[in-house]
Prior knowledge:
Strand content: 15-25%
Structural class: alpha+beta
CATH superfamily of the largest domain: Metalloproteases ("zincins"), catalytic domain
Amino acid sequence: MPDPLDSRVESCFLQAEAFFKRPFKRPQVSLKLRGQKAGVAHLHENLLRFNPQLYRENSEDFLRQTVPHEVAHLVAHQLFGDSIQPHGEEWQLIMRGVYELPPNRCHTYAIERRRVTRYIYHCPCTPEFPFTAQRHGLVRKGRRYLCRRCRQALVFSGETRVE
Length: 163
């Protein structure tokens, strides 16, 4: 039995081909996306990546809304090229005209956020600048950051906070 996600991708392309009366190159489909995004269209690689966890937890809406959203990006790119905005009028035309869906830019799926450590930096004028682990690592390698207001170097306070 075919995978519902692959079937939905194919049906979206068939709808676009019927609407525009021309063929579209099919993408590679991957379920290797993590984090907050439900889906990503890689235009130049002709690749669709979907978040398997959000797909599992929201499969009905995911198939109805997220899959056409991402396919519309590839269709718009194949029709109009590189010079268009990601959620611009061309993409919106496809969402409304081809898929008869509202051109929503973002999903509303509940996302479990993982806890992150913030490294607290300060300067003479501001008590707290929370840095990510990546930025803190760059400071430890010699990178300097300046306060935008007083132009003094930000200094690690020795404190961390888990959010």
